[in-house]
Predict the 3D structure of the following.
Amino acid sequence: MSPARRDFDVAVIGGGLMGSAIAWGLANAGQRVAVLDEGDVAYRASRGNFALIWVHSKGLGMPRYSAWTMRSANAWATFADMLRQQTGIDVCFQRPGGFNLALTQREWEAREILLQRIQSQPGMQRFDFEMPDRGRVKQAIPQIGPEVVGASYSRYDGHCNSLKLLRALHAGMQQLGAMYLSEHRVNRIEYAAREFRLMTAQDEVRAARIVLAAGIDCARLGPMVGLVMPVRPQRGQLIVTERTAPFLHHPVQCVRQTDEGSVMIGDSQEEAGADPAVTSPVISVMADRAVRMFPQLGTLNVVRTWAALRVMTQDGFPIYDESETCPGAFSAACHSGVTLAAAHALILAPHIAAGCLPAEEFQAFSIKRFDVPALAA
Amino acid sequence: MFQRLPLEPSGSTVGISIDGRRVEARAGDTVAAAMLAAGVVRCRTTPVSGAPRAPYCMMGVCFDCLVTIDGVGSRQGCLVRVREGMRIEMQQGARELGK
């Protein structure tokens, strides 16, 4: 191994949307940052996602997550403007309000119950949502099919072009002086005298602080610095059609039209281990539901199908924490790297730059919530 | 730009229309070949940048020859044979939903 070649304030492990957003925020705060990215053998959730900035159905079981999501969604316009001004890249953020379409009366009723349960939790920062009937949905989206009975709608939902977002973050963080190191899988982390040494096949990177933002690989890396991170892959399959003249001006939870006209159809939730395979039964169901929602989609040509692996924590909520045994080692993991990108860049990263996560904001997201005594054993 | 090889005496012709213009194609031509023979040098524009496109690979790979055939958008002209009375239309930008 060649000698340690670089010393940084912070080394971020992971160059996806989570790592890049944090690295961009750290560089913005004047930190000397390195980003260690594994390479194209990694699972690359950030290249396969659905690109919603979604608020209205999140947070059942953790009101703090709902509030955090809303905070990020509210910061998104500023975030997108900052990226455009800095890099010239328009990440096509729009917040026209999002629909979730119901194809049966029962689905529609279950949806309303879910949203009411979210809003009625103790400690919830409540926000408005609507349950428009078929007639009102048709006013907003004339192309809905005859099976659509109603929808839930929230004016707080939006979407973006997440590939352009990743590109803007990479361009932006490097403009701000961050060093992006590709093909740098971290094999081992050592901690001594308040310094972290990250061992890769190429070389050794040293930093005063580190951020684990390596997606599902956090399960391997975390224990090296005293952070047990219960994360697993959860598969989502997607379909994308040819580009089509604009017709759908709102994101719908599993159908959205991109800024360049493609229609994306998503996104399954499957416990399939680390297998990013596309399966025809799942794709068939997704296509069938999408065509029932928008019958004219049936005439479009499908260009690609693919699968990506969500970074799913044990309870589905994000993890943000700092190691007790190796202070200065932070962890961040979630499945909503697009929605939460603004919060990661503009709120989380400045705290890491300052050296600690304030308990009042981040305690709820600590890995300590998984340390439940084995009561029933 | 393109010229036909000498037509065999028995070669029959097929009447099609390209953007409303009546054109004689050869039986067995693909739509893309018939367009090129008829002097069409752009058959569509791209959805994002609006750049012009014309038939290129002639074997179903490049998707540059997408046209609207008998009302159905985004058909690959090089993979469809002409038929009597076929209506071919240039495709401007993205295909419209339902067309």
In short: The domain at 231-313 of chain A is CATH 3.30.9.10 (D-Amino Acid Oxidase; Chain A, domain 2). The first strand of chain A starts at residue 6 and ends at 13. The interface with chain B takes residues 143, 242-247, 260-261, 294, 296-297, 299-301 of chain A (CB under 8 Å).
